[in-house]
């Protein structure tokens, strides 16, 4: 048992040592990144920016394709843009967007409930097994609670 513990401890130490060797220190990696950026020509910088923009755009478009309320959202954005000073004119668009989001959320919950197994069974309470509460034992002096005496409220 002791030999296994020593072996596992040694493996853990070796893995941690390899992690630290493969990962450069944070300060040097940041400095290297800054130097790399400073070495870029303006043309290369524009190309890199365009590449990042295209990647972000394709990611955003994939998210928008899954959005069921994009039409209502566009209508609401357009109304708010046109009526910057009088947002109250867009209440109907706000309500239609809200109802669309509620319906889409409920549809998604229903879909998940249909395809996933139930996580636990609902147990019905058994009323017959519950004991009936007993009245407190009568004492010689009964304490009265009065609304005008707050110190009697907590008795």
Helices and strands, with pairings:
Layout: H1 2-22, H2 26-39, H3 42-65, H4 70-82, H5 91-115
Helix pairs in contact: 4-5
Question: Can you tell me about this structure?
Answer:
There is one protein chain. This protein is mainly alpha-helical. It has a domain at 40-114. It has 5 helices and no strands. The protein has helices at 2-22, 26-39, 42-65, 70-82, 91-115. Helix 4 (70-82) packs antiparallel against helix 5 (91-115). The longest helix has 25 residues, at 91-115. InterPro entries: Cys_alpha_HP_mot_SF. Residues 114-137 are annotated as: Disordered.
- Main β-sheet description: none
* Number of DSSP strand runs: 0
Helical amount among residues, as a percent range?
Answer: 55-70%
Distance between the termini: 62 Å
Mean pLDDT: 76
InterPro entries: Cys_alpha_HP_mot_SF
Region (Disordered): 114-137
List keywords for this structure.
single chain; mainly alpha; 0% strand; elongated; Cys_alpha_HP_mot_SF
In short:
The protein is an all-alpha fold and 155 residues long. It has helices spanning 2-22, 26-39, 42-65, 70-82, 91-115. The protein has a domain at 40-114.
